[in-house]
Fold this protein.
Amino acid sequence: METFKPKIDFFWVSDQTPLFVFVFSFNVFLAITATLGNTLILIALHKVSSIHPPTKCLLRCLAMSDFCVGVIAQPLFVAFLMEIASANWRILYLTLSTFNFTFCGFSFATATAISVDRLLALLLGLRYRHTVTLRRVRCLVVCLFLALIVNGFIYSLFSRDFANCAAFVVIIISLFLSVFSHVKIFVKLRQHQARVREQHGGHGQANGREIPLNIEQYKKIVCTIACVQLALVLCYFPLFIFLILATTTKLYKIGSVFHISSLTVVYFNSTLNPILFCWKIREVREAVKITVKQVYCLSS
């Protein structure tokens, strides 16, 4: 197994006291906001009944993944920062890496699955509810989660290069499927709107067999997941660059300013997602407001 040795050709975050204090405090804050924010989203999704169960299951998985980042990954990251100047940081980092590959990768894969789910809802029409069932979605979620856990253990215990390459493949496939799904959805919705305008101007009625769903709610969920995926790409891009450099240059600059900053941006995504959920989906926003009011009344 490769050993991590300090390099003198880059700055260690532990050597930059003001930056270290800021990153440490900011991650403590993000851990709290990610935990509370995603707890509210999970409660809100439980109350909302207008979202189709398989889609709601995937949304719950995304929120649960972000919740686990706030509860497990970020506290471990804060502990890693505290021990980065000592000899005890290796075990913490290997444990943290396993959870990072699992939860962060699961967020990426789940967001892609939601995009594909929305595309299938548009393409399959009435067959969607018989094809995309809750049982099949749960099986997919379990398989994804197990695969990402295995990859996390491979990174920590066996081969970092192999795990990094596997992560690159997952990211590239996820991005391709997401872009393809959203482009296809955009094209189909434009065609549907044009057909509705033509039939509205004539004497016929729109064919309900092709898109038998609530178009307004459908657009809200598609817009929400598009924003979530854009935020994922922006937040994960620095870490993606770090992994490429670490793999190609063979320099595992663990603890550098670039490494710590890129992980912090990734963790920030878990706080950002609940905000996007509340901003884009009115039903979730109203359920969150009701939950907050109930908590406030109980505390009073």
Remarks:
- Residues 1-11, 203-210 have pLDDT under 50 and may be disordered.
